[in-house]
Automatic annotation (TrEMBL):
<dbReference type="InterPro" id="IPR004682">
    <property type="entry name" value="TRAP_DctP"/>
</dbReference>
<dbReference type="GO" id="GO:0030288">
    <property type="term" value="C:outer membrane-bounded periplasmic space"/>
</dbReference>
<feature type="signal peptide">
    <location>
        <begin position="1"/>
        <end position="22"/>
    </location>
</feature>
<dbReference type="InterPro" id="IPR038404">
    <property type="entry name" value="TRAP_DctP_sf"/>
</dbReference>
<dbReference type="Pfam" id="PF03480">
    <property type="entry name" value="DctP"/>
</dbReference>
<dbReference type="InterPro" id="IPR018389">
    <property type="entry name" value="DctP_fam"/>
</dbReference>
<keyword id="KW-0813">Transport</keyword>
<protein>
    <submittedName>
        <fullName>DctP family TRAP transporter solute-binding subunit</fullName>
    </submittedName>
</protein>
<keyword id="KW-0732">Signal</keyword>
<dbReference type="GO" id="GO:0055085">
    <property type="term" value="P:transmembrane transport"/>
</dbReference>
<dbReference type="GO" id="GO:0015740">
    <property type="term" value="P:C4-dicarboxylate transport"/>
</dbReference>
<comment type="similarity">
    <text>Belongs to the bacterial solute-binding protein 7 family.</text>
</comment>
Length: 329
């Protein structure tokens, strides 16, 4: 028995079932910035549950929602340093890592509908974009959808002239900056977690986001008007620390890949449902007026914003833009 103990202590010899059980689980810290009751929040929680089930408890995913752990910029750094293992930042937040091509998703009116978007994210163009993250120590696992954005402010946003002079909170994307300037508004980059306070204290006048983000952050309480412009897209790339991912045992990685596929379905199914439900709730709150743009208003907005495609081609790369046109065409 003593020899067996020695061998075990040296890591040699078979483990009994009880000893294997006693192995501490692999912990995946998954940080994100939105509420749990959103497409991303639900998908992250689903992933955590299925990862535990499919690995028989060998993996424990700890989800930290609502910028509890890190805000936008910090979470990206934390991932690269390995302080957290998984994130799902919006596609608008990857350019600061030096992968500017991701800002193609921010081009206004680049997708006419969710089907066009899916052709990109489910196809070779989407895969190639994820592949560009590898040199940054990051592996892209999936795209999660959150639908199209609406505009909000404290005055009605009907014509293009209505945006003039407004300070509009945006994510850290140069394309979104150009988009706001094309409307003669002033873009202001702010972390998601700071947006509600900035709208409340008036340091910014308005913003853009899908209705579910607007509602779950209670931005509608401090925004009197919402316009259903659906001018741009918001989606996520689920990313892991590459060294961590590559170092996982093969069977664990396979189980997590399966859990991720299921979570992706949850995100994508929740997106349109949650955004519709959020609009109903915003309307019911009586705090915000919702404007449905007329065909002419939308056409005017589109004409003003399409200029951004050309303007930003140098930054994003014309090839990437052409790839998207082709994939969606
Ligand atoms: C934002 O910053 O507006 C969004 O990216 C937040 C999110 O993760 O949906």
């Amino acid at each position: 028995a003593f020899v067996r103990l020695l061998l075990l202590a040296a890591g040699i010899g078979p483990l009994t079932a009880a000893q294997a059980q006693a192995q501490p689980p692999i912990v995946i810290k998954f940080s994100h910035v939105v509420a749990t009751d959103t497409p991303k929040g639900k998908a992250a929680d689903h992933f955590a549950r299925r990862a535990a089930e499919l690995t028989g408890g060998k993996v424990r995913v700890e989800v930290f929602p609502n910028s509890q752990l890190y805000r936008d910029k910090e979470e990206m750094e934390a991932l690269q340093l390995g302080a957290v293992q998984m994130l799902a930042p919006s596609l608008s937040k990857f350019a600061p890592l030096g992968v500017k091509e991701f800002e193609v998703f921010d081009l206004p009116f680049i997708f006419d509908n969710p089907q066009e978007l899916q052709k990109v994210t489910n196809g070779p163009v989407g895969q190639a974009l994820l592949g560009k993250l590898e040199t940054r120590g990051i592996t892209g696992l999936a795209y999660w959808n959150n639908g199209f954005k609406v505009m909000s402010a404290n005055r009605p946003l009907k014509t293009v002239a209505d945006y003039q002079g407004l300070r509009m909170r945006i994510q850290s994307s140069k394309v979104l900056g150009a988009q706001m300037r094309a409307l003669k508004a002033t873009p202001q980059v702010l972390a998601f977690s700071e947006t509600y306070a900035a709208l409340q204290n008036g340091s910014v006048d308005g913003t853009e986001n899908p209705p579910s983000n607007l509602y779950t952050q209670r931005m509608h309480e401090v925004q009197k008007h919402v316009s259903l412009t659906y001018h741009g897209y918001l989606g996520y790339a689920v990313v892991v620390n590459k060294r961590f991912w590559d170092g996982l045992p093969k069977d664990i990685r396979a189980a997590l890949t399966q859990a991720m596929a299921e979570a992706t379905q949850v995100a994508n199914e929740s997106a349109s449902k949650d955004n519709q439900a959020a609009l109903v709730a915003i309307r019911a709150s009586g705090k915000t007026q919702i404007h449905q743009p007329s065909a002419a208003e939308r056409a005017q907005l589109k004409a003003a914003l399409l200029t951004v495609h050309k303007e930003m081609a140098g930054r994003i790369g014309d090839e990437t833009i052409q790839d998207i046109y082709q994939a969606t065409g």
